User: Fold these one by one.
Assistant:
Number 1:
Amino acid sequence: MINPFENALRQLWGAAKVGEFPSDLIEKLSRSEKEITVTIPVRMDDGTLRFFEGYRVQHCNWRGPYKGGIRFHQNADIDEVRALALWMTMKTAVAGIAMGGGKGGVVVDPKELSVSELERLSRGFVRALWRDIGPRVDVPAPDVNTTPEIMAWMVDEYAKLSGDQTDATFTGKPIGGTRPQNRQGSEGRGAATGLGGFYVFDAVRARAGVAEGASVAIQGMGNVGGHAAKIFASHGYKVVAMSDSKGGIYNENGLDPEEVEKYKEEHHTLTGFSDAKEISNAELLELPVDVLVPAALENQITDQNVSRVSAKLILELANGPTTPEADEILHQRGAVVVPDILANAGGVIVSTFEWEQNLAGEHWEEEKVLTKLKETLVPQADLIWQRAEEKKVPLRVAAFIVALERLASVQGQAV
Ligand code: NAD
């Protein structure tokens, strides 16, 4: 098993060495400020009681409240959550938003639960955690297998327990429903990670030697991958492959992501989709494409398969999809890896806009949200590209250096 937290630490210390940051700063950032493990008792529909383990890791709050999603996954563990929290600290610093880094996880396969069991689990997690979160303390959001509906249950439970009237403690909430409009989700949040990823891609594309309309393979078609596929296709790119956890489909002439999504919704599988070849997730990564977009889980591109990955540009919409060994090999062969802490920052940026709207009692038009997203993210992509060129380092190292400079200027004092 590849440990994502060890990978995150290797990235952190590697960049610190290039940027010549003081070891005190890096030692502090190598640890979480607070780690909470909770037990969540859930009454199942058949009357039995089951216990689920959950985590919230609060990595660093020097730049603002801890911020990061909650993942529901059978393989979630504390090291994964630690890694994701550390990356959130770097991501919010790269994005230049006044937030810190945190992350949560519950060890569960939500596909095995009924809707009411899922609601009880979501509310139970908040009951176990509510004293440690809050609009000025720690602001969770959705991640793998957590949805706007789950955020709605969580924020409702939090409001009941705490009396908070802002609903600003959770982002990625739905739009509509029974809560006042200025306490709901933000316009544009659903597509934000995929769209932000496209803005970053568009900013670096020409410099990376990728033509407009190039071929793209996308692993994962959840919130992030599904939106990314539609956005790439709508901008004239040829999306040749898509996948879910069970496998993928490939057509070298291009797929229609809307049709693929519709098919998956109806059949709950991609198997049988007409006019495409069935492929495994491993095969998807090795397709002869210009752009590869991992948008599922960590550790997909490793020293085991990197020699067969042929894409010119890898846009990391998932967190931690490339191991440090694979990263090094890709760099040596001249591939451009647009790192997660830049590529997928669109989600946390619009989450921050949602938090701001809730605190101010406002609800912004979609156009305003998307304009602000682009204005926030694209200059950071340009800056990181420039920094990578100046220092002759990969984009990931440059992104960590930019984040570390911003963190160093506000670092918590040692006592
Ligand atoms: P999601 O649950 O909506 O979708 C996950 C997708 O990955 C699904 O299509 C699922 O079938 C697929 N998948 C699961 N296991 C897989 C496997 N072993 N191989 C291939 N595909 C698999 O989750 P999401 O919100 O789209 O998150 C995807 C990635 O993006 C994660 O790494 C997450 O941390 C990252 N991310 C999400 C956001 C966000 O706003 N949701 C923001 C930044 C980063």
Note: The chain has a mean pLDDT of 97.
Number 2:
Amino acid sequence: MTQTYTIAVLAGDGIGPEITEQALRVLRLIETKRDVVFDCKEAEFGASAYFSVGKSFPEATIKICDEADAILKGPIGLSHEESEKIPVEERPERGALLPMRRRLNTYANFRPISLPKGMAHFSPLKQEVVGEGIDIMLIRELIGGLYFGGKERGEKEDGTRYVKETLDYDDKQIRQILEVAFKEAMKRKKVLHNIHKSNVLISSVLWNEVLEEVAKDYPEVQVVHMLVDAAATHLCLNPGQFDVMVMENMFGDILSDQGGGILGSLGLMPSACMGPDKAYYEPSHGSAPDIAGKNLANPYSMIGSVALMLDMSFGMEAEAKAVWTAMQSVFQAGFSTGDLSKPGAGVEILSTSEFGDKVIASLEGLL
Ligand code: IPM
Ligand code: MN
């Protein structure tokens, strides 16, 4: 019997629509090769939704997401100047993205920092540091900490303005993300880097206490404790030491962008945001308004997000693998896009859609 999956497709802002278009081509191709239907329901989300219907996460979109089996989401956001035209509460980060994370309870964010050997030239790190390539799974807690804690702003009697933001976690929240991390470590090299700041933050002290409890159930996993600031250095000096890394929300936001940096671009960073019932998939980067609509952006992060969806939501591991291989083969064949490579870098620069053509052609042969 034909398997049908309903996918909410939120193309988002900036380069979102053009890279989403390429990602949808991949799904269309898989439909022709397998007994599967991807029922894609497009919906507005982000700044574009605000300008068209006055809400950045409109009711109609919420409904489509609620009814979908999984959600494919493009980048959101605007330039600083354009953002100022939207009331603070409706700006896409606060009005759409964080509410979506909260609604779906997507506490586990998987951010692969991955550069196979054939793409090692993208990394700004020296060849001897990159070695056989980079292959890290950064796991970020996504719905706790400073992002979701209480916020207060006021003025003291003497007129000094102050803010107070709270970093909230409880042991249940910590346990559930650590469980995910240990399970992932078991599937990989059984080495887990626990990233924290327990020399200063009591949130990290509790985090580490819970980690000791959870670790008892995973005796085969070797845990390496590392302070977050040190981890930032180690990511540059010796990325090869990491396999699975786990950390709280804000540490993960920052270190995952650094992950994009050691790959050479955030454009190479897809991600999966997993909740207990549903997941959504998105690039880890922003909407790149400076190059939007120019057919310049590389669709890797969006197509990679589709690959993660195939694997993690639909159990289509072989197809997911084929998608990764297809994308990587395009780079290996000497092609790139203008956002990733400069003319004269010894590669042929393609447009977004031409890059998509090559991925599709390669994937045809792999499915
Ligand atoms: C990310 C983004 C978001 C975050 C922003 C857009 C709110 O930077 O997904 O990493 O900080 O989580
Ligand atoms: Mn970020």
Note: The CA atoms of residues 170 and 206 lie 8 Å apart.
